[in-house]
Design a protein that fits this description.
The protein is α/β, with parallel strands linked by helices and 218 residues long. The protein has a single domain (8-216), classed as 3-Layer(aba) Sandwich (Uracil-DNA Glycosylase, subunit E), CATH 3.40.470.10. It contains seven helices and six strands, in the order H-E-E-H-H-E-H-E-H-E-E-H-H. The chain has helices at 8-20, 57-60, 68-79, 117-133, 145-154, 191-194, 201-216; strands spanning 38-39, 45-49, 100-104, 139-143, 174-176, 182-186. Strand 5 (174-176) and strand 6 (182-186) form a beta hairpin. It starts with 7 loop residues before the first helix and ends with a helix.
């Protein structure tokens, strides 16, 4: 996956960002490639995000690392016992996830944080393969509508199920699937959501507290 070249627009953009860099990171070497998933292969909690940030995951080479969204995510994971530390700064920072695995709908940073539908479709094989390998997942937490849609499409459980009967995205939404994991939904912790108050700390922690309770009871 790290060597994937399926989406020329995304590969060109990631490489350009890695060359030009942001002034604050001009002395750093950018990853500039598709970003692999990260976590415990025996995880019972699966977190699905949107895509790496241009100067976050595309810089550090780790999902949700090096940007404000990562601060929200790893802070909550640490608070509820899924991460060894509350901050993720780089691949060699010593952070470990326990009982949690983090992936995304797209593995390359998209311009404007908006991957095109075809780009999401091309990337879906990687998510589908991960779902087959993560055999112990009990709770899936999707961050945002695009991640929600990506997980539904990658999961074999929804093949042939009419759209009207599939779980709909809503912050704090919970869908109990009779033959699979419990699906939880949250707004993505992007600046657009956290700085406008659409997603508050209490709203965010409530979702993770629910995930932890479900894991403990599984």
């Amino acid at each position: 996956m790290v060597a994937c070249e399926r989406c020329p627009r995304l590969r060109e953009y990631c490489a350009q960002v890695a060359r030009e860099k942001r002034r604050a990171f001009r002395d750093q070497s950018y990853w500039g490639r598709p970003v692999p998933a990260f976590g415990d292969p025996r995880a019972r909690l699966l977190v699905v995000g949107l895509a790496p940030a241009a100067h976050g995951g595309n810089r550090t080479g780790r999902m949700f690392t090096g940007d404000s969204s990562g601060d929200w995510l790893y802070g909550a994971l640490h608070r509820y016992g899924f991460a060894t530390q509350a901050e993720s700064t780089g691949r060699d920072d010593g952070l470990r996830l326990t009982d949690c695995f983090i992936t995304a709908a797209a593995r390359c940073a998209p311009p404007g944080n908006r991957p095109a539908p075809l780009e999401l479709e091309r990337c879906r094989d990687y998510l589908r393969a991960e779902l087959r390998l993560l055999e112990r997942v009990k709770v899936v937490l999707v961050l945002g509508h695009i991640a929600h849609d990506a997980w539904l499409k990658a999961s074999d459980r929804w093949t042939g199920v009419p759209v009207a009967r599939r779980p709909r995205f809503a912050h704090g939404g919970e869908a109990r699937l009779p033959d699979g994991p419990i699906l939880l939904s949250s707004y993505h912790p992007s600046r657009q959501n956290t700085q406008t108050g659409r997603l508050t700390t209490s709203m965010w922690h409530k979702v993770f507290a629910r995930a932890a309770d479900l894991i403990a009871g599984s």
